[in-house]
Amino acid sequence: MRFLFQQEKCSGDLGNISTCIILQVKQAIQKAKLELSFELQRLPTEEEIISRVGISPERYHDVMKTSKSVYSLNSRHIVTQEEFINGISDIDGVGGDKRRQPALIRLALDDVVHILTALIISI
User: Fold this and answer.
1) ∠ at Cα 40 (36, 46), nearest 5°?
2) Stretch 77-102: mean pLDDT, rounded?
């Protein structure tokens, strides 16, 4: 099974078409997971799913990122009712290694850019 975009199912402006494509890829991934689980009698690996759907690993990961729920740091844990922001801490503390900070900031910015790019693509 190779993913084949079905243009007739999508209409409207570019944002609607982009969202429609993302939804079609998500559906193809879910279908591949179900089929592979049945065939293999176990959960399939990402590589097996990617191969079945016929998309690039980057595209797979971008689509899967759009599937994840987004939570506010001010929302509360369902059991403890503690705000999620309270669970975030600086593991290096006040006297941490200052030489690592630019690299960590660069990694964090790369993550933000990647997430925003995926969101823009999905819009």
Assistant:
1) 50
2) 64
